[in-house]
């Protein structure tokens, strides 16, 4: 979820910075079109677009980009037959075109707005258009349902945007929510792992005293009956649910309540026998309920089980993102990209126009 980290950091910048985004990838590459990172003036960075082989070169370009104040493209050809400098050193065999944008002025304002929108649970699309009169890029935002539309599928989508050549769209989706029912110590590694892979975690329990003992940074808490919890947090079809309180009656009550809200994923912790007791008498959609939860990797203990569950969450989330691809677009790490054909020379740098 580097994309959301880059967005959030860009919106709260206290120093000059440059955003680097892959706008074209040909052949093998570590990251694909739409992957982005943030390069701060003090040398620190957020995110990555390579295994580390390009970051230093990009970092050395930051001052020049900030001084010029306009976006530019850099091309890296990792084919040793065509580019000895990068090809033999990196050996990936692909070619990347990277867009470098100073995070200032209009772009900074748009990113601040986009970050605020995503934090409220809405999707937002940043649309770029190269100005026909200058080497500048002009920006526009689409929020909510319009942000999800493909510009190729909806010719009227860009109506009202400034004129110029379309460059690149970036779609940011809100963090998926993982609601963990059960506040015991064994759910701490699950919460921490889920947050590391980009989920917004809510831990729910009928015992307020148990939740008061939680000391996991970044998670939200909700107490009450399953119905009260569902109402308080507004369970929706995009949510992921993990039921693991170890109390059979409470877990079954929670499962019945969550099924009525049609979430995207429900994971049930426990043996096959326990899962059978939980599902007995309930109408479930097998593609939604994953039981027993987690990938079969021979996990033992809370830490390893958390890894198996996190792996399953990634698998389910990735399958959903693949289903969103249409019209030749890519949804990669929170970004959906279209267009962006660029003509630059190997190893060259030019203004984005």
UniProtKB/TrEMBL annotation:
<protein>
    <recommendedName>
        <fullName>XdhC/CoxI family protein</fullName>
    </recommendedName>
</protein>
<dbReference type="Pfam" id="PF02625">
    <property type="entry name" value="XdhC_CoxI"/>
</dbReference>
<dbReference type="InterPro" id="IPR052698">
    <property type="entry name" value="MoCofactor_Util/Proc"/>
</dbReference>
<feature type="domain" description="XdhC Rossmann">
    <location>
        <begin position="178"/>
        <end position="313"/>
    </location>
</feature>
<dbReference type="InterPro" id="IPR003777">
    <property type="entry name" value="XdhC_CoxI"/>
</dbReference>
<dbReference type="Pfam" id="PF13478">
    <property type="entry name" value="XdhC_C"/>
</dbReference>
<dbReference type="InterPro" id="IPR027051">
    <property type="entry name" value="XdhC_Rossmann_dom"/>
</dbReference>
<feature type="domain" description="XdhC- CoxI">
    <location>
        <begin position="14"/>
        <end position="76"/>
    </location>
</feature>
């Amino acid at each position: 979820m580097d994309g959301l980290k880059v967005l959030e950091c860009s919106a709260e910048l206290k120093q000059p910075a440059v955003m680097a985004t892959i706008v074209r990838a040909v052949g093998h590459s570590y990251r694909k079109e739409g992957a982005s990172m943030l390069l701060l003036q003090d040398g620190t960075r957020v995110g990555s677009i390579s295994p580390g082989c390009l970051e230093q070169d990009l970092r050395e370009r930051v001052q020049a980009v900030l001084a010029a104040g306009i976006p530019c493209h850099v091309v890296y050809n990792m084919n040793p037959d065509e580019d000895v400098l990068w090809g033999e050193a990196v050996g990936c065999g692909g070619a990347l075109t990277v867009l470098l944008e100073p995070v200032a002025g209009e772009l900074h304002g748009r990113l601040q707005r986009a970050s605020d929108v995503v934090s409220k649970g809405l999707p937002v699309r940043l649309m770029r258009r190269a100005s026909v009169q200058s080497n500048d890029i002009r920006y526009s935002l689409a929020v909510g349902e319009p942000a999800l539309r493909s510009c190729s599928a909806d010719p009227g989508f860009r109506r009202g945007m400034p004129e110029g050549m379309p460059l690149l769209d970036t779609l940011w989706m809100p963090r998926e929510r993982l609601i963990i029912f059960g506040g015991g110590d064994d759910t701490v590694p699950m919460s921490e792992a889920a947050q590391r892979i980009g989920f917004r975690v809510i831990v729910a329990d009928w015992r307020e005293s148990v939740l008061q003992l939680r000391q996991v940074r970044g998670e939200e808490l909700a107490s009450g009956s399953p119905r009260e919890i569902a109402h308080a947090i507004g369970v929706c079809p995009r949510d992921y649910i993990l039921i693991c309180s170890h109390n059979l009656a409470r877990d079954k009550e929670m499962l019945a309540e969550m099924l009525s809200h049609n979430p995207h994923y429900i994971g049930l912790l426990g043996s096959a026998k326990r899962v059978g007791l939980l599902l007995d008498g309930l109408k479930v959609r097998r593609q939604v309920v994953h039981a027993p939860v987690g990938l079969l990797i021979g996990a033992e203990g809370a830490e390893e089980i958390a890894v198996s569950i996190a792996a399953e969450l990634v698998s389910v989330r990735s399958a959903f993102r693949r289903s969103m691809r249409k019209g030749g677009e890519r949804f990669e790490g929170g970004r959906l990209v279209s267009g962006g054909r660029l003509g630059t020379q190997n190893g060259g740098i030019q203004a984005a126009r």
